[in-house]
């Protein structure tokens, strides 16, 4: 059995803007991960059932997918195939993306390797394949989550047809500031949030805000972060946080609205959505992790990057 482990992912910037064929930046997050395993016995019947349902879906979609090794798939299922993972579901960390990446690596006969030179053409092919596979979970998928989980590398999305592997700016291990995730305490359903967003896009004012404000500042934040301009990124993140608070209800859980607003008002920290929202994690940005974490002491938090 393959011992490949697939990390979770964090969409640092670009939630919903990538739905509109614009910029996004996604990074691997190794604290949470998963891998395919056999012989679960009775301890993970739920995972076994979900994998069986996923494979039934792939049989229907098989004409649009690379050649799958169904002999191996069926044999593994008989041996209690399951996905051992600590990636929380419905939290915006790519739990389904990691499973899809693992499935592709084990069962596609002529797969595109995650090693070696990855041309834009190869990246596009992978993204399109992953999009079709992951659509089982979300109804519609960009394919970015499983692509990131498969490669384990930061990915810059410039448009639907232009993506590239990039590098994170050097992290300051002893930095006082950083980026963190905060647990809302509730999971969320990506497909329902995306459906709500698409409904909102029918409103003229919301449509204008997305195309002329949200996308603009998401792109600015990405460029400033990748260029190491942390002060400028922090200021742009504040504006992005204000835009999100004003326009993205109920993607922001009601119980966190006051906390979100307090960060903007005090300028101590700024929140943004981590994925589609509605629950799961929030992404936080602060120049003073110690003070911010004391303010948010009642919530579960994890640092993902220091500056």
Outline of this structure?
With 307 residues, the protein is an alpha+beta fold. The protein contains 10 helices and 9 strands. Strand 4 (155-159) and strand 5 form a beta hairpin.
Topology:
Layout: E1 6-13, E2 24-37, H1 45-61, H2 70-78, E3 82-85, H3 95-107, H4 120-138, H5 144-151, E4 155-159, E5 162-165, E6 178-183, H6 190-200, H7 204-226, H8 230-247, H9 254-266, E7 269-273, E8 281-286, H10 289-295, E9 301-306
Antiparallel strand pairs: 1-2, 2-3, 2-4, 4-5, 6-8, 6-9, 7-8
Helix pairs in contact: 3-4, 3-5, 4-5, 7-8, 8-9
Structure description:
The chain has 307 residues and is an alpha+beta fold. It has 2 domains: 160 residues, Ribosomal Protein S5, domain 2 (2-Layer Sandwich); 129 residues, GHMP kinase, C-terminal domain (Alpha-Beta Plaits, 2-Layer Sandwich), CATH 3.30.70. The protein is built from 10 helices and 9 strands. The strands form 2 sheets. Strands 1, 2, 3, 4 and 5 form a 5-stranded antiparallel β-sheet that branches. A 4-stranded antiparallel β-sheet has the order 7-8-6-9. Strand 7 and strand 8 form a beta hairpin. Helix 4 packs across helix 5 and helix 8 runs antiparallel to helix 9. It is globular and about 60 Å long. The termini are far apart. The model has no long low-confidence stretch (mean pLDDT 92).
Radius of gyration, Cα only, in angstroms? 19 Å
Helix percentage range: 40-55%
pLDDT average, as an integer?
Answer: 92
> How many individual β-strands?
9
According to CATH, what is the class of the largest domain?
Alpha Beta
Sketch the topology as an H/E string, one letter per element.
EEHHEHHHEEEHHHHEEHE
Distance between the termini: 39 Å
Structural class: alpha+beta
How many strands, which pairing sense, and closed or not: the largest β-sheet?
A: 5 strands, antiparallel
CATH architecture of the largest domain: 2-Layer Sandwich
How many helical stretches? 10
How much strand?
15-25%
As for the number of domains, it is 2
Low-pLDDT windows of residues: none
Instruction: Please name the CATH topology of the largest domain.
Output: Ribosomal Protein S5, domain 2
Taken from the alpha-carbon principal axes, the silhouette is: globular
């Amino acid at each position: 059995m393959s011992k490949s482990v697939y990390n979770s992912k964090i969409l640092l910037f670009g939630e919903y803007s990538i739905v509109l064929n614009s910029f996004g930046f996604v990074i691997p997050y190794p604290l949470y991960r998963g891998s395919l395993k056999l012989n679960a016995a009775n301890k993970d019947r739920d995972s076994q059932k979900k994998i069986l349902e996923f494979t039934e879906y792939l049989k229907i979609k098989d004409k649009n997918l690379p050649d799958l090794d169904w002999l191996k798939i069926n044999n593994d299922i008989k041996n209690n195939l399951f996905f051992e993972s600590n990636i929380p579901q419905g939290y915006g960390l790519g739990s389904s993306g990691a499973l899809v990446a693992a499935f592709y690596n084990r069962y596609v006969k002529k797969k595109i390797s995650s090693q070696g030179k990855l041309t834009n053409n190869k990246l596009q092919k992978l993204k399109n394949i992953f999009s079709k596979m992951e659509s089982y979970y979300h109804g519609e998928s960009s394919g970015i989550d499983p692509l990131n989980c498969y490669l384990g590398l930061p990915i810059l999305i410039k448009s639907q047809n232009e993506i590239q592997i990039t590098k994170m700016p050097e992290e300051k291990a002893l930095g006082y500031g950083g980026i963190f995730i905060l647990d809302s305490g509730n999971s969320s359903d990506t497909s329902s949030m995306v459906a709500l967003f698409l409904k909102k896009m029918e409103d003229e004012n919301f449509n204008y805000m997305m195309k002329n404000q949200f996308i603009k500042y998401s792109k600015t934040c990405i460029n400033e972060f990748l260029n190491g301009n942390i002060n400028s990124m922090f200021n742009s993140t504040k504006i992005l946080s204000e835009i999100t608070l004003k326009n993205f209800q109920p993607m922001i859980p009601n119980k966190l609205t006051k906390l979100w607003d307090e960060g903007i008002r005090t300028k101590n920290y700024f929140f943004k959505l981590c994925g589609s929202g509605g629950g799961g994690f929030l992404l936080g940005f602060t120049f003073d992790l110690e003070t911010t974490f004391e303010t948010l002491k009642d919530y579960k938090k994890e640092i993902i990057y220091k500056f």
